[in-house]
Amino acid sequence: MAATTPPDPNTIVWFAGSYVRLGDANVNILTHALNYGTAVFEGIRGYYDEREANLNLFRALDHYRRWKLNCSILRLDVPKTPEELVEITAELCRRNRFKSNIYVRPLAYKASARIGVHSDNNDAFAIVAVPYGEYFAAAKGLKAGVVSWRRVDDLAIPGRAKICGAYANSVLAGDEAHANGHDEAIFLNNDGHVAEGSASNLFMIRRGQLVTPPITDNILEGITRDSVMQLARAELNLTVVERSIDRSELYIAEEIFFCGTAVEIAPATHVDHRPIGAGVPGPLTLKLRSVFAEAARGRIPAYRHWLTPTLAPEAVRA
Ligand SMILES: Cc1ncc(COP(=O)(O)O)c(C=O)c1O
Q1: Is there a single domain that holds both residue 152 and residue 286?
Q2: Predicted local distance difference test score (pLDDT) of residue 133
Q3: Domain boundaries, position 278
């Protein structure tokens, strides 16, 4: 997994309404969000384009629109428009002069420093961008395992909202999967249907169709998931079906892959120690992986609108 080394404390971040050093962007130990998980995060990738010497944010406006909606579930106010948030992020890219792929972590949180679970309107947000590589070494495929933990239910902590406290659920799942010799976890929901990975959505190919759980099966409404569905229909002419998936269907699927901002597209070659298809990354998965990589890097004109270039021409020349 990427980013095991702590980011440079001199990285410029957006914190408490201004651009400051990461090393100076700290919160009180009694912060409500730190004690009770009352925060909502987002994750956005930026891809550095060597040819154009520019750093392009991938679907940044869609991410910030989703973030603000998700924040409203927890009654967290982010007093900026999605367009303003994209501009702050672009400015972070310019100030940090990144010349590599990056990951952007917006975080909105309940900021009062006191004991007591009831929340108030003291909300704050920060945006951090750091150089970032691959989340998984995914090219040769991942071994996945269904875990005994169930995906958080919408009636407990809404999984669609990227609420920080809910990620203890993902940590438990990942730990169990690793302890059982897998690279990644597969969650079932409370109905026993396949939900998603610990930090990614899941697709399978069955009878030549691309199948993924519906957004009402306690999954995160992934932006990569949406990109994959658009690309599969338009570029690969695949039929895409959103329906519940049984655990045993995974075992007889032709192909399976995970997708997400950090994960990108990661083939799963095994589930519960059983090979999927031939036990190697499947041909449709590999095609989708490559078309997604092309689109995310601005190489397919029809998807150029997904990218926000961040470096002003002067910054490129500097
Ligand atoms: C639980 C979960 N599912 C799916 C995803 C993928 O969502 P996206 O493609 O919007 O990054 C994530 C991303 O962090 C996640 O945490």
Answers
A1: yes
A2: 86
A3: 142-297
Residue 94 has pLDDT above 50, yes or no: yes
User: What is the Å distance from ligand 1's center to 115 Cα?
Assistant: 31
The neighbouring-strand residues paired with 56 are 47, 309
Q: Do residues 78 and 219 both lie within one domain? A: no
Within-domain flag for 58: yes
Nearest-angstrom CA–CA distance, 56 and 99: 11
Q: What are phi and psi of 14, to 5 degrees?
A: -95, 120
Burial class of residue 196, CB neighbours in 10 A (0-12, 13-18, 19+): buried
Ligand 1 atom closest to the CA of 223, numbered from 1: 10
Can you tell me the distance from the alpha carbon of 217 to that of 116, in angstroms, rounded to the nearest whole number?
32
299-310 per-position pLDDT tens digit = 999 999 999 999
Number of domain units in the chain: 2
Q: How far away, in angstroms, is 162 Cα from ligand 1 center?
A: 8
Reported pTM = 0.95
Q: Are residues 115 and 218 in the same domain?
A: no
Closest ligand 1 atom to 162 CA: 16
Supply the CATH number for residue 202's domain.
3.20.10.10
200 C-beta closer than 6 A to ligand 1:
yes
Does the active-site annotation cover 162? yes
Does 104 share its domain with 173? Answer: no
| 220 Cβ closer than 6 Å to some ligand 1 atom | yes
* Distance from residue 260's CA to the centre of ligand 1 (Å): 5
Residues 121, 153, single domain; the answer is: no
Q: What CATH number is attached to the domain comprising 60?
A: 3.30.470.10
Decide: residue 190, CB within 10 A, 0-12 exposed, 13-18 middle, 19+ buried. Answer: middle
Range 106-137 burial, b when 16+ CB lie within 10 A, else e: bbbbbbbeeeeeebeeebbbbbbbbbbeebbe
Nearest residue to 133 via CA among 2, 306, 294: 2
pLDDT in tens, 3-31: 567 899 999 999 999 999 999 999 999 99
Average pLDDT over residues 251-277: 97
Q: Are residues 278 and 183 in the same domain?
A: yes
